[in-house]
């Protein structure tokens, strides 16, 4: 039983998952800070976001009481989700995609062409070709 547990822990998947959770928590803190410090104040310029929490719809229950549907909180959560999604896409995903595209473009660049042979090398190649041709043209005894 302990051997199986040890193999489970030693496998790379568990370590990768643990690292992903820790990085995800740190990433969440960054995104939440951007939303709270930048996006929410921008939204507050347009309308008062605090007023959303007070938007409720009261419905009478079967037992004579009332229950409240907090649809303002739902709208606030949707706005918050969209704000987080915008930050994640434009601050993190889009720049990473551009970086990957540039890296892929750099890898696809053709290698530098071989340098041109010098004049002496060209003359040697011509001499060798002529001597080969001359030996092919001459009759063999």
UniProtKB/TrEMBL annotation:
Gene3D superfamilies on file: Large-conductance mechanosensitive channel, MscL, domain 1 (1.10.1200.120)
Q: Which keywords are on file for this protein?
A: Cell membrane, Ion channel, Ion transport, Membrane, Transmembrane, Transmembrane helix, Transport
**What InterPro entries does the record tag this protein with?**
Mechanosensitive_channel_CS, MS_channel, MSC/AndL, MscL_channel
Residues passing through the membrane, by range: 21-49, 69-92
Its membrane topology = Multi-pass membrane protein
Q: What is the first-listed, main subcellular location in coarse terms?
A: membrane
Describe its partners and assembly state: Homopentamer.
NCBIfam families per the UniProt record, alphabetical? mscL
Q: What is this protein called?
A: Large-conductance mechanosensitive channel
State the organism of origin: Microbacterium sediminicola
